[in-house]
Amino acid sequence: MTEPKIHSPATPEAAKKQPRDGKGNATIYDIAKVAGVNPSTVSRALSKPGRVSAKTQKLIQDAAAELNYQVNPFARALPTGRTNTFGLIVADITNPTFFDIIRGAQTTGTLRDYTLVLAESAESAATELTAARRMMATADGLILASPRMDDDDIRALARDKPVVVINREVEGVPSVIPDVRKGIGEAVRSLAANGHKRIAFVAGPAQSWMSARRWEGFESACEWSRLEAVRVESTKPTVDGGRQVARDVLSTGATAVLAYNDLLAIGLMQELQAGGMAVPDQISIVGFDDIFGADFTTPPLTTVRSPLGECGAGAAARLLDLLQGKGNAEPEGTLQMETELVLRGSSGRLLAAGQR
Amino acid sequence: MTEPKIHSPATPEAAKKQPRDGKGNATIYDIAKVAGVNPSTVSRALSKPGRVSAKTQKLIQDAAAELNYQVNPFARALPTGRTNTFGLIVADITNPTFFDIIRGAQTTGTLRDYTLVLAESAESAATELTAARRMMATADGLILASPRMDDDDIRALARDKPVVVINREVEGVPSVIPDVRKGIGEAVRSLAANGHKRIAFVAGPAQSWMSARRWEGFESACEWSRLEAVRVESTKPTVDGGRQVARDVLSTGATAVLAYNDLLAIGLMQELQAGGMAVPDQISIVGFDDIFGADFTTPPLTTVRSPLGECGAGAAARLLDLLQGKGNAEPEGTLQMETELVLRGSSGRLLAAGQR
DNA sequence: GCAATTTTGGCAACCGGTTGACAAGAGCGG
DNA sequence: CCGCTCTTGTCAACCGGTTGCCAAAATTGC
Biased composition, Basic and acidic residues: where in the chain (chains A, B) (predicted)? Predict the structure, then answer.
């Protein structure tokens, strides 16, 4: 009497189920029937090139085309564990630094037939770890861009599946980082050539690995050029943070500034200009990263370009090599990307006060 | 005698397999063994609240916690077809318009325990369709941001699984669009109040649905304010495209411009300023979208803000409602988001040539 | 205290591929 | 023409959950 199987087509349930039963979901069993072979033969024909004879291969491919078959990724993933998917975790999707990284990773991923899954950690090490764990379950590998978590946590993840880190070096885990020395060297020499004697570095977050590297590079470049390097701390690496740090920068008496990133540089420039300072006539400003919009400012921002897109692409390539068994030769080690100075209008010669 | 199961740990194969066999992959069978119940009971306890008694529930949950079990998403997806995943396809990851959309979608997705999968169509309708098809196989639903493909293609996709469209209206498919009228009305009235008589609209791509809407809104707002509206075509909706169109804009004799998007506006402003024009003294420029960086320019760009983040979030919420069976009341129809004028420095009163 | 009813847990089939083992068939030399 | 090797297709088990059906157990009513 009870008839639990009735699908009254009006219910949302029925509507939801429809697609799966409908068309477009041919299985290897359907193909096998059409081609008159065994399902496993179909499986081999479709994924192990050369394992079946040329003529059954063709037979099967035709049948597959006719039914417009596509593999069910889950069915494939279940026994193999491979998903043709990789994860990318960024600290903050809002932060333009990551845009290019995402794009680079996405592009090379697609090129090599991998799908990108994106997650955000909201700048929290805990959230980041959670997200990473979750991704590990579904993705074949993971890219961590500027991770906030411990080295140990990263290594633990890397023990499960291939992991590539961007913007940080972790012992035993392959990484892709921009080599800041060249770019910073160019920036500092350029400032020195323009007559600056004391230049300030506006630091990023205290726990940022990258900020530490940039400060190191800055210090040694200044030493080399016999300039006085002073360090100013910022509250947060954003436009707003740049605004807030303007007063501190001025009080150092520096005539040029290298900021930890472009956002800080832009905020700083805005605030200084609002206070009547002329850029670059009274103070030179150099940013870092060459993010989208760095050339929207007036004057356009001089900046040390990090090849973010290439970092993303490089990390993806690295990861995919690992996944596909290539590049076993050097499973770890650091891939250094070159940085370079992009000279625009916000840096230049200091004009004496009288010359204004 | 034959021992086919031997894993020689030295081979890369073994290394690859390791993670799956290692720790961290407890199954419901393991839990069942520990808790002394049947696997199916475990399955029920974990996914059908209330289906098993409170005390076995607890028993099972403890066992699960102890083994730190996590479901294998593929195993779950295989019989059910549900993946707790949704796709987002954008035309161009480079385009900052989409950044906020991505972020909005990602955020609400994560909040509701769904994972975002991102794809890019490279502005090509064909690529877009391919990507969409591929996603359909793995995702529970799809968000199309500013899709380039035919209405028919979109409807075809929507027949398979829930689809939500952003920045376009497609009969029979739910969509989220910014209602441009309010924002454009404010912009045009503001320009009118500043004494402008003839204003130009720099159009976007010819096939863009959104560009057509913006032009319509512009025309009718101009009519309402008794201003003369002229239309200028652009080659591409980028900073570069904006530069290229500067000459055409000037030749219309318009004293104010509304651009299809901020990139065009920024390029236009750069080129005009490079040619010696003062903004806004000689020409007012208004952009569209309020993208990241719109306030980096000098003067900062006046723009009609599209609530892109909210569009992304709204579309995700809509889609997830659909997936979770909520909101059946209005499975289709358009969700309109309000636009508003963000008045910054690039628009204002026209100064007579003599007043310069 | 017993029958009727509702809970609760177990069994087994299934989702759609993959893969090791094996046997039938093809190709070959002698 | 026979026996050998190599290729090619089939069988069956498996990945890890989900779910319909049924029966045992617990609860309820009288």
Answer: 14-23
